[in-house]
Design goal:
The strands form 2 sheets. The protein has a 4-stranded antiparallel sheet with strand order 1-2-3-4, with no helix packed on it. The chain is α+β, with helices and mostly antiparallel strands. 35% of the residues lie in helices and 25% in strands.
């Protein structure tokens, strides 16, 4: 998947940032990114992320989700054109936006 200067390979757990650095994603990071990408332009609440990524039998905190989002944002922010951006929706969750759609 290519958007602006960002390339994503979900099957390889890798992202190429705007500085041409390949970043290896953990399984959870990649799963969160893929969920947000599939639901782009929609707000995905933290409970949905926890349920779909960790499953119903695991209960990480909302803060755990926030920490993963911080890591994912680092490579997103490498593209000054903001072709892919993860936006916080206060008190709810996160939304991935793709510039071409705005």
């Amino acid at each position: 998947i290519v958007h602006g200067k960002i390339k994503i390979w979900f099957n390889r757990f890798e992202v190429l940032d705007a500085f041409n650095n390949i970043i290896t994603l953990s399984q959870k990071e990649c799963a969160i990114l893929e969920l947000l990408y599939r639901e782009h332009s929609k707000v995905v609440d933290r409970n949905t992320i926890i349920s779909k990524i960790w499953g119903d039998n695991n209960f990480p905190s909302n803060r755990t989700v926030d920490n993963y989002i911080v890591k994912l944002r680092k490579w997103c922010e490498s593209d000054s054109d903001e072709s892919i951006k993860i936006i916080s929706v206060r008190g709810v969750g996160y939304k991935l936006t793709i510039k071409e759609e705005e």
